[in-house]
Amino acid sequence: MALRQRRGARPRRAAAGRQGFVGLACLVFLAAGLAATWPSVREGGSRFLASPSAGHGEAAPGDHLQSTYRLWLVGHQLEQGRAPWRDPYTFRPESPPRVNFEGWPLGIPFWPLEAAFGPVVAWNLLVLLAFVAAGALTYGWLRELGAPRGAALAGGVVFALAPYRVVQSAGHLLGIVAVLLPAALFAFERGRRGGLRWLAVSALFLSSIPLSGQLQLALGAIPLYLAYALARTRARRVLLAALGGALAATSAGLVVRFAAISGSIESEGRSLAEVDRYSAEWADLVTRHARHGLESFVFLGWATPLLALAGLAVLLRARRLGLAAVLGLGAAVPILLALGTNLALYEALYRAVPPFRYPRVPERLLPIACLALAALVAFAASRIRSRAVLAILVLLLFFDLRVDAFDAVAADRENRAYAALRAAPPGRLLELPVFLPDRHYGSVYHYYAIQAPRERPGGYSTIAPRQADRLARRLRPLNCGSWTRERRRLVERLGVRYVAVHAGLYVG
Fold first, then answer.
1. 97: closest CA among 456, 462, 422, 423?
2. Planar angle of CA 370, 372, 375, nearest 5 degrees
């Protein structure tokens, strides 16, 4: 009996050790999130963690307000007994209820957070939890690839703190949705060892990328997924499952394409001039601050790319050629495409490949490069045997990758005008000033819709229906007080019963 107990104790101690290290890793990733949001996180109980923006006495405009609204809608619709994928309030009545793709899948965990803490704290918690998820899922995937625990921890830190992912988490959902990519690869590795359910979960994670509205990220994620599967296995069953997952993700993208983009203000695609405006330059790759706008902020770190090159050499020396090719190209191709029109090849791709005509921000594929760099850094770290040196490396990565992306911006949590409107009789709401649908200032109206939900003709979306854009152009003279008889009749026809004037947006 004593011998059996001693033999059984080792696996139990090993399992406890693994669980303890995973817990420690999650604390490291949480610390990464706190470091990335410091010192703004100290005001996270009353202000949004988001890109810097001035509110002028009201909620500060920005993508974080639109994202919060989209996520809030899921739980709100369920509580009302309505379809959780519908937005019944925006661009009404010119547009029927729109599909809220951005609410999937993050609206599900956001629902209980919002119910418990309100939308401001819920958003801030989601941002912090995304750091933990990004690091933990990358850690789990790298462990499946055979990376030692310390090396996998280093890789998780790289993806969690990847500057582009961090900046795109300060309002835009891209940086948070990007965690679905390591989740899909982790589940694929589990499924590759015989778990069919894991392969289905992997396909669900992959399909959720386009289904959440992140079509440009999906354009790179789907080919990467297929190439990764070919590099990792020759088992027909697994490859067929990977192909099925890729087809499911492609189908999800087509659903979004025809349900949301067709008939919108961007249904004909973007001009090359728009792409040029948002294209990064070579200097942006090594510059720690935004030189000309956050969209073209593509800093990769200074030490991180060098460590990634060392990791690529480790894979080549180990004859893991398929994985080296996938990770090497996965890092290089998105980085080059992020240069947009500053890369000679981009214009040819724009004219020859239809999907390239729709995104105006060529950097949207960079989360793929961030993940590939994280994996390569982990393989470089796998050659380190000293725990002390690994700890120093993780600390170095903290300093190498940290950027100032977050500010504590105004939330206006309990606006008295909207509190009164919440209890008012039914009727549509017109908010002044009127903005064209693709102007981010309209995000403020989304946020106040959380405080007083009701239909309004305005809203904020870069893929708004054309009829909503035409209506906004007809209503814009109201901003200057031009209430002609024709416009009064138009407002009456729209069923508008209330008008809210946002003085802070006139100042902005």
1. 456
2. 110
- Is residue 127 over pLDDT 60? yes
How do residues 160-206 score in pLDDT, each as one tens digit?
A: 999 999 999 999 999 999 999 999 999 999 999 877 899 999 999 99
Dump pLDDT digits (tens) for 91-106: 999 999 999 999 999 9
Please check whether residues 231 and 363 belong to one and the same domain: yes
Query: Which candidate, 3, 6, 22, 463, places its Cα nearest to that of 262?
Result: 463
Task: State the Cα–Cα distance between residues 246 and 256, nearest whole angstrom.
Answer: 15
Pair 358, 247 in one domain:
yes
256 and 374 co-located in one domain: yes
**Helix segments in 38-173, DSSP class H:** 63-79, 107-117, 119-144, 149-161, 163-167
pTM of the model: 0.94
Distance between CA atoms of 17 and 19, rounded to whole angstroms?
A: 5
| Cα–Cα separations (whole angstroms), residue 495 to 428, 430, 488 | 6, 10, 11
Q: State which of 387, 408, 429 marks the end of a domain.
A: 408
Number of domains in the chain: 2
- Asked if the structure places residue 55 within a domain, the reply is no
Dihedral of CA 33/38/41/42: which sign? positive
Whole domain around residue 208: which residue ranges? 12-43+104-408
Contact (CB, 8 A) for 475 and 436: no
Q: How far apart are CA 42 and CA 44, in angstroms?
A: 6
Q: How far apart are CA 82 and CA 80, in angstroms?
A: 5
Q: How far apart are CA 162 and CA 308, in angstroms?
A: 13
